[in-house]
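Record type: monomer structure entry
Structure origin: computed from sequence
Chain ID: A
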Amino acid sequence: MSTGKKQITRTMKTTFAVIAGIVVLSLFSSFSLAQTRAVKMPIQKPGQKPARKIPTKPVPKKAVRHPAHHVGQIIPSKKMNLNYAQEMNKVNNKIRINGKDPDVFFTRGWLYDYRGNLQQALRDYTRAIQLRRNFSDAYYNRGLVFVKMKRYEHAINDFSEVIKLNPKAFDAYCNRANAYFQAGKMDLALKDYTAAIRLKPNDPDLFYDRGLVYAAKGEKIRALANLRKAAKLGHGKAKEYLKIYH
């Protein structure tokens, strides 16, 4: 065979090898992508069909602990009417009379939080804690403010204080798990959701949330098992997801 023909043959072999490598790589990538998609859980937005994404926010067990039992007045939830200016005027008058009452600072922190004034809420919850070091509800609400501010490590510290003061505070375990989840600490989130489930074994939100963490870790079998348990306990979104992923 002539030198020119040998060169052409080598070139053709090299080209074929490159093409074959690309094909194999493409097939491997497609398989890996399919595997990744298979373990993702859906998320649903209002008015839309479920998308193939992992929900990023597990369900907090309580939005905020109310100040009613601290100061002897009933402050309604966000679903009810609240005369914010009137309530704020009342609490400011109490602070002028006694600026060392932790319950009053807690109440004003709650009012600020109600209106979304997170920095002011943070300040007043902190002041309440300074005045009463074992103020569990103030730690709890401040932890939720830190979550809203995406300061997850601070939130984790506050929920940990709540748990130290009350080891049976399942909502603190749940919200600390949520903070761990947002911080990317999946194993710690799982540990806390499991602790919360031991304290409240018939709460569908806890199984639903733990299912989301397993899904984020790529553990489809465990994710689906938790979603099935949540659905059995009446969790609406879990039921919807199981219609698609089974």
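Annotation 1: The CA atoms of residues 5 and 11 lie 10 Å apart.
Annotation 2: Residues 202-246 form one domain.
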